[in-house]
Amino acid sequence: MLMFVLRRIGVMILTAFALTFVVFYMTNLPPNLEKLAKSEASVRMEDDAVISWLAENGYSSPVLQRYGEWLGVVPGWTRTDETGKITGRCIKAGTDPATAPGYCGVLQGDWGFSTVFKQPVSEVLARSLGATGWLMFWVMAVMVPTSLLLGVLSGMREGSRTDRVLSTFAITTTATPEYVSGVILIALLASATAGISPILNEAGWISGKTLFPGTATSAMDDITFMNFFLPVMTIALYGIGYIARMTRASMTEVMTQQYIRTARLKGVGFRQVVMRHALRNALIAPFTVIMLQFPWLLNGVVIVETLFNYKGFGWTLVQAAGNNDINTLLACSVVAVFVVLVTQLISDIGYVFLNPRIRLA
Amino acid sequence: MEDALSWGSILVRIAAQLLPVWVALIATFALSMTFKRRLGLYGRIFDSPVGMTGFALVMFWVFTAIFADIIITHDPLGQFSGMKNILPGAPLKDAAEGAYPYYLLGGDHLARDVFSRMVMGARDVLKIAPAATVVAFMVGVTLGLPAGYLGGKLDTSISFLSNLVLAFPVILLFYLLVTPEIRVTGIPTVLAAILFIFPVVFLTILLNSRFFTSPAKRNLYVGIVLVIGLWAYSGLAFNADPLGVWSMDPNMLNVFVSVVFVNSPGVFRIVRGMVMDIKTRDYVAAGQTRGEGPWYIMLWEILPNARGPLIVDFCLRIGYTTILLGTLGFFGLGVTPESPDWGSTINYGRRLLAIAPHPAVVPAFALMSLVLGLNLLADGLREESMKD
């Protein structure tokens, strides 16, 4: 078991290095650097001015060396110009070059400076991850119980009317990506001209023009049911269908097992059989699925935060990518890759714990 | 000036406009139902109501895409004054002689007809999604078969690479891969060069392993595949077709390649898993004893026996690809602003959702129904293929 975990962690670290290098390489491609130079210095720069700007700011060294600098395993670049002034990666403006540290990279906790937000990346990331954390928490709190309940209810009696209805619901939500369900939900519940809001308004049931607000910007300061309902539902709906389908498949399989039949024949009530005998065995598979849903949730978060203008992790990623903010984009991808790999590891280990029949060499 | 249409008459008019689709659908169903016992797995779709519903939805969009030119009521790029964000069923102000007098599903933020754009969008989506899925399948199958069958170092390295791609958040990958800057560096061309060679390799190995005992036939078939395959390859990947038949817009190539790149590791995983299961069967051992080559066993013994789950996955994956294309459009990546594809229409429509929801809601429902159809079709196929 320990060996398995250690080997998995080894592969994980290797993957993390490979992926961050790919992102580093892609964001540091010559056209991107040129765009960066033009946006940082002057838009109407000549080609040789761009080259000298890049050289002055440490972008001319080989990619691998710069990746090392970013990681913090290679000393940061320093440069002495004609007047004898020393500039360098680790030398903050206005500080003495002699006291500056030799290494400054991710390993030293220095994530660089964001060119879009004009703030250190670590601050940007901390704020946006906090916001997204709340969103994820509420999505999980809605999605997991609902989907497990739906899955168990429809898998309990395969082919019954409840099963048909719930399965149709599940398959419809899996066919509805977040940008579709979000748009439909807004049109239905948060539009002044369509959906149910005008009707409610005329009847005098709601004071505002719309039932729910169309954005979640106010949730940055204060999360309420009103401003968080739509974004949470939009992300959760897609996951609910998928997890419910998995739970249903697992539940129907368990319900056909010999021990369920034995329990029924012994005279145990249906409710008891489901609660006592079937449920625990049926929930092993959905656990893995829920864990592996995280990468997809990340996608949903990016779409929903853009749609509802909620300034969390996904919104930051879109802003960074759209404005060629290399440091922020790199930090975002490190976080994303980390989340994906850790959830994969947890799902593998959790699967073994939950299912004693599986033995790992 | 005429009054706006009521919802009932809008529906009637849309149904009338879609007449060629209904005719084609009824013809397809009538023919398929008549001969369903002779059509194998395809015919068995018509035994399950779920599969039939899914098939009807999918074919509805396929025929809509085919007959899009007849169905549209206005030029999808044409703008008429006074029709900006106008409600569904509004009459056209001072319409020219012979022009369709209504905007059936309203106008968008640039006063274009939402209905016509939705219909043309179907064509855009159905041009890329199935083709990209086919290429992704060829890549996944060509790599997954040897990885599962031979195992060892080959398996370890390809699996590591595919896990690498799978661990990448899709949207981040799109933001890195589908930008105007990246085209300057030639990375899409390199990716296309790697990914597009797989269909040619796959077909060559497929035919070579089947016919290598009769060289005359083999030379003919493999020759044809190589000539046509490499011809198309040079045109599609490098835009260097000497005859100019095969070519791909660089924008489209970028989108196509990224979608294939994201999809193929998933296919690889499924194929590899199934090959590892099937290779322990007796008929594979029998083939090995007869002295069949490894590629013959992989392609002509194992692959046909894995077709059920692969067909089901194919349907689901077209749906997933449609969602991915919509995501690209939603973030405005790799598409021109005029493009009527559903993703970017939703993207433009969402900014005015509070005032005029219809420009975004119409393509949203279109995309949802197509993906729903594909999922239902996959479900029906799974049920029917499990009955064996």
Walkthrough of the structure:
The complex is a heterodimer of chains A (361) and B (388). Chain A has 14 helices and 4 strands. Chain A has 361 residues and is an all-alpha fold. In chain A, the strands form 2 sheets. Chain A has a two-stranded antiparallel sheet. In chain A, strands 3-4 form a two-stranded antiparallel sheet. The N and C termini of chain A lie close together (7 Å). With 388 residues, chain B is mainly alpha-helical. Chain B has helices at residues 7-17, 19-34, 40-44, 49-66, 68-71, 114-150, 152-166, 170-177, 180-185, 187-211, 215-238, 250-278, 282-290, 294-305, 307-330, 342-350, 358-386, and strands spanning 90-91, 102-103. In chain B, helix 6 (114-150) packs across helix 12 (250-278). The longest helix of chain B has 37 residues, at 114-150. Chain B starts with 6 loop residues before the first helix and ends with a helix. The relative contact order of chain B is 0.14. The mean pLDDT of chain B is 87. Chains A and B meet through helix 1, helix 2, helix 6, helix 7 and helix 12 of A and helix 7, helix 8, helix 9, helix 15 and helix 16 of B.
Overall pLDDT level of chain A = 83
Mean pLDDT of chain B: 87
Helix content of chain B: over 70%
Strand adjacency order, main sheet of chain A: 1-2
Largest sheet: number of strands, sense, barrel closure of chain B: 2 strands, antiparallel
End-to-end CA span of chain B = 63 Å
Tally of helical segments of chain B: 17
